[in-house]
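Hi everyone,

Forwarding the result from last night's run.
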Amino acid sequence: MAWVLRDLYEVVPNDYIEAVSGGRAGVQYVALGGSNQITGVAWYRGSTSDDPPVSLSVWDRQQTVRLWKTTDVPDDGTVGWHEVDLTDTPLIVVRFNAQVGAGGYWADGGQFSAKDQSADLSGEVGGNVPLQFAFHHEGSGDVVPATVATSRIYPFDIRVEPWAGVSAGAGAGVDAALASYLTSAGANYAGNPIADIKTTVENTFNDVEDGTFGLAAIKDDTALMLTRWSSALATKLNDTADAITTALTVWTSDLAASIAAGMAKLEELWSDILACFASTPGALLCVVHAYLKFLRDLTGPPEAAWIVDAETDFTDSLEWPVQADQYRVFVETFDARGSSQTVGTHTRYVHFGKWTTMDVDVFGEWHYFSQEQSKLEDGGRRMPGLALILEHGGTGHVQALLRPEV
């Protein structure tokens, strides 16, 4: 088929158009059927006063997409056709009754030639090429022309040749078409979803590297967290040192008794730690609690100094609104279900029973005890009352103890 329009007529312009503010775009569509490849694009200068277009494009009218664009517009300043050869990178059009065409864009003030379409060209001419598909667009930049240019022919042409199937040239055409969507300089890049996705990915990557939102911020937050942890750890170590000093002061009146009591406390601490790991949920917190309990017991008054303020018996469970600094539980009969451990002379049972503080009808957090004789404390504070449950039932006795200095 070769050049579609110039083989049928020569453009003899009888109208000169000046682009308005925002520019003017025009396109001359033709109908193609079957498998074709566009191997050339051309524009026509009808007067030496005409300006070359800022860009040339190939548009698909039905899909409203730009198939190709260049801003490297050929121009030798003469009247006549000026061509772009696409033989090495043809545009493949495989569709029945496809409507494609060449077009151009002139910026504000740019002049170009056009031709009024006479009656003998209003219908189909030889080669089945209807010429009435001319469109234009004013004032909106280099976008798809969408307004019918009634009875007017724009000075553009395309060279169309049959396409026999996949070839090196066709592959290059596919590559060029993909590049028009995937590269920022491509004719179809702006406004398509791929461009938005690419921009989002780039912005996300930049945020990750950014000093405010990204890795640097994470590094700073981690450093701050470590600083706070080290400060808290130092405070705890100082508390421990103070506790040891207090313990030495309290217990030096009887060194032998102090050593024996200290070893007993260590044995009890080790027993508590083993029990913690036997009860998998919350093992680490359980160990910390056991350690704190060890420190409180170590610095507290001798056993003889505690005052038994009240006592009571219970079966299965107990709600006892009696305040105490420490409750001592003695379980007398029970159903020993589940696993148990023997440490020295003590036997411990997994989730043997649970307890919490109570103030009238308000209960605190539940804690577990695991042996027949247990001391129950809540951070050294005076507790308003005790709620207690044996997991599998039983009977026992509870004492409420107060510190003598309180």
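The chain has a mean pLDDT of 76.

Cheers,
N.
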